[in-house]
Amino acid sequence: MANYQDQVETLPGVGPKRAEALHALNIFTIEDLVTYYPYRYEDLAVRTPQESLDGDKVTFKGIVSTPAVVRRFGKRSQTYFGLMVDQANIRVNFFNQPWLAKNIVVDQELAVYGTYNAAKASLTGIKLVTASSDELAAIYPASKEINAKTIQNLIELAWSQVRGTLPSLVPASIRNKYRLLDRNQQVEWMQFPPDPYHAKQARRSTAFEEFYIFQMRLQLLKLSDQSFAGEEIKVNLQRWQAFKDQLPFKLTTAQERVVGEILNDQQRPLHMNRLLQGDVGSGKTVVAALAMYAVVTAGLQATLMAPTEILAQQHAQGLAKLFDQAGVDLRVELLTAGLKTSQRRQILADLEVGDIDILIGTHALLQPDVHFHHLGLVVIDEQHRFGVNQRSKLREGGVNPDVLAMTATPIPRTLSITAYGEMDISIIDQLPAGRKPIETRWLNHGQLDLALAFMAEQLAQGAQAYVVAPLIEESEVLDVQNAQAVAIQLTESFPKYQVGLLHGRLSNAEKQALMADFKANRIQILVATTVVEVGVDVANASLMLILDADRFGLAQLHQLRGRVGRGERQSYAFLIADPKTDYGRARLEAMVATNDGFKLAEEDLKLRGPGDILGTKQSGVPEFRVGDPIKDLTMLTIAQQEAIATVEESAWDNQEENQALVAYLSQSMAQYRHFD
């Protein structure tokens, strides 16, 4: 008898070549093999035409009533014959399988699986099945090197040797609570379900096990992260409160809540790893300012990393102004790649001796020559733009500051639980009082003149406008508007106004000069590529015109729209597009329907799937084999709650019911070090 932990090579019939094919499917042990589950089942239970609906995949069993005839059409063929099924004569058609004709004998009992056409009383055959078949047939994902039938045979062989010996990974108390199967019953019914009901029960238990194991890994990552010595920051609450009281606006209830969560983390002796998410314009920057000032009152330093120099410069100016308005005396500096050598050298020297309280910058902050005197907090803006390696560099340098990551890309609940599961999450789900919703309209290219006429009215009233185009210059591949041609056209159409052109090929100095001119209203129309997507803040800009809007993703459209609506004017977004797909139309309809970034993110997840929403490489969303993190969100949430409850129990890893789980996790954790 085999052991479930044995390598697949120990099974009869698995030589080096077959083992290599199995390894390519991540099947290394017998346990891997018996838990290599079907992706669907074919219901081979025999039915009658009266029990079947048009288009159903069904198995009909009857008596062959006419001989099989083969008709050929060049390389293609059709094989057809009559089958008397429960008083009805059904015409059965097989395409491109002429060899079946020799198996069709008049007056013989035969069972055929195929697609039923009720109007024509016909069945498009998929395969002949044994007349005794009345079960579900498992269909396995396969490869060129090994076919599904071979995989099925190997699973049957392996299961016959290890049946009943698999330890359950989900603790018995949780299985009992949610009426889940033990692992042996679960595997048996996943691989060999007697009927759809049992297959459904097995899938339910298997999906939960998959989610629970994943969440346990995340919780262990979180515990591991906290095991790095965090610093209990001794915040001077009196100074901190005085700064908060001097802010030129009142915080929203949501901002007050997340500020409290962050301050509580900072004052604990554990390492903070928190994600702050809030829709465009929800006020994340002031929350970050309060978190940074808390660190400064304790005599430590803070740093803020932004994805672009434009955004870093904006943060530096905005924070300096905020502290100045509140009468707070501290030093904020900007460190970017564009600094002169002498300036950079001076900033680095002052930073190392502690003369700089807050340092703002881009990836330049991660250079080896950047040394802080005592860093207490790192704020990372647009979190998903920084990879794991960049986020861990500071720690590798012997510094372990608290981390507050911010994103204006609203993250659906599914992704919060998976891609960001090892982080604590704070959500600002409320816009500041008085903020007017942006009116969004979708026009086709034939209606562009209407949008331009509306732009003329807005400009005449003193407003400014963004016009976004997907490409910088003519492309022979894509028939889309381009920024350069648009800028020329708008200069001719609006001779009274200054038109600027902003794109990624400009130098940082050129970009900053353009944005400064736009902010000062020396430029009234800014034609841009998506370089304006993140964070750029011009209060007087109240019109966003997006050309070929169907070329952009839903999250990107929402980010672009968020560049307007920053001031007191009523703001508008015009989406100009003639989408050619249902997906394109669905995105634009969603944009018109709501300004709520969280609703749009959920919609985007439904339309695109989890692996795509933040960019395939950066999303970190696992590919679950059985569970669906979108459709099974409630189950995923419960699995997360149970995993948290498990690790919060004292000595949970010594409890008898958890021993199989502990052994499994200790073997598999090495490959799950980084999820993002």
Mean pLDDT: 85
| Estimated structural class | alpha/beta
Alpha plus pi helix count: 22
Roughly what fraction of the amino acids lie in strands?
15-25%
Approximate helicity band: 25-40%
The total count of strands amounts to 21
What does this structure look like?
The structure is a single chain. With 676 residues, the protein is an alpha/beta fold. It contains 22 helices and 21 strands. Helix 7 (237-245) packs antiparallel against helix 9 and helix 18 (582-593) runs antiparallel to helix 19. Mean pLDDT is 85; it is low at 476-480, 611-620 and 671-676.
List the helices and strands and how they pair.
Elements: H1 16-24, H2 30-34, E1 40-43, E2 57-64, E3 69-73, E4 76-85, E5 88-95, E6 109-117, E7 122-129, E8 136-139, H3 148-162, H4 172-178, H5 183-191, H6 196-227, H7 237-245, H8 253-266, E9 273-278, H9 284-297, E10 301-305, H10 309-325, E11 332-335, H11 341-353, E12 358-361, E13 375-381, H12 388-396, E14 402-407, H13 413-417, E15 424-428, E16 439-443, H14 448-460, E17 464-468, H15 483-493, E18 499-502, H16 508-519, E19 525-528, E20 541-547, H17 554-561, E21 572-576, H18 582-593, H19 597-608, H20 616-619, H21 633-648, H22 659-668
Parallel strand pairs: 5-7, 9-14, 9-15, 10-12, 10-13, 11-12, 13-14, 16-21, 17-19, 17-20, 18-19, 20-21
Antiparallel strand pairs: 1-8, 2-4, 2-6, 3-4, 4-5, 6-7
